Amino acid sequence: MTRITESTLEDTALQWLKDLGYEVLFGPNMAFDGLFPERDLTANYTDVVLTGRLRKSLRAINPNIPDEAIEDAVRKITRTDIVGAYCNTPLLVENNRCFHRMLTDGVDISYQAEEREVHDKVWLIDIDDLANNDWLAVNQFTVVEGQKNRRPDILIFINGLPLAIIELKTRPLRRPRFAMRLINFRLTKRTYRLSLSLTN
């Protein structure tokens, strides 16, 4: 029996995502020093939001919203200090809930138009026309958080926002019961945590 490697799983998953309509890119190529740079040089791998894609998508989804209001929405989404103020909580779990509300209910913005203040929403995902969204799957996307260097197997972006992580593992050939007991122990002891947060 041929052993399936994690690399084979990754390639298969990426092909599957490509067949579903995702653009597929290799993470190092997107780095500030890569072949097709999309990441901020000054962030030095701490950035996880692809702000160029985000801005372009928000303009396409919200064509009647002026650019300054789009920029206000981008700030509310990407800056930790603003997300904390906008969501009114310093807690990661609560910030994630607040961000989920932004995804589902839109981002509240206001702007001046015809000598009056207009209150509106910027929508992050076009649920009426899914083809109007930017679907991207990236493998080996490096994120530096503190002293930790993380590189998920596949990171799913919608409109420049990282919304899902896929970690691919092959089944161990030896000692599968031990591996399952170890996973169960870690889950029950809550030592398995995802520390990659959306905002910098």
The major sheet is characterized as:
4 strands, mixed
Q: Write down the Rg.
A: 19 Å
Estimate the global geometry from the Cα principal axes.
Answer: globular
**Class of secondary structure makeup:** alpha+beta
Strand order of the largest sheet: 1-4-7-8
What is the domain total for the residues? Answer: 1
Q: First CA to last CA: what distance? A: 45 Å
Mean of all residue-level pLDDT scores: 82
Count helical runs: 7
Proportion of residues in helical segments: 25-40%
Topology as a string of helices (H) and strands (E) = HEHHHHHEEEEEEEH
Instruction: Give the strand content.
Output: 15-25%
Number of strands: 8
Model regions low in confidence, pLDDT < 50 over at least 5 residues = 182-200
Give a description of the structure.
With 200 residues, this protein is of the alpha+beta class. Helices cover 38% and strands 20% of the residues. The chain has helices at residues 6-19, 27-30, 51-61, 67-78, 80-87, 92-105, 176-188; strands at residues 23-26, 107-113, 116-122, 135-139, 143-145, 148-150, 154-158, 161-166.
Secondary structure layout:
Blueprint: H1 6-19, E1 23-26, H2 27-30, H3 51-61, H4 67-78, H5 80-87, H6 92-105, E2 107-113, E3 116-122, E4 135-139, E5 143-145, E6 148-150, E7 154-158, E8 161-166, H7 176-188
Parallel strand pairs: 1-4
Antiparallel strand pairs: 2-3, 4-7, 5-6, 7-8
Helix pairs in contact: 3-4, 4-5, 5-6
Essential attributes:
200 residues, alpha+beta, four-stranded mixed sheet, two-stranded antiparallel ribbon, 7 helices, 8 strands, 20% strand
Write a concise synopsis of the structure shown.
The chain is of the alpha+beta class.
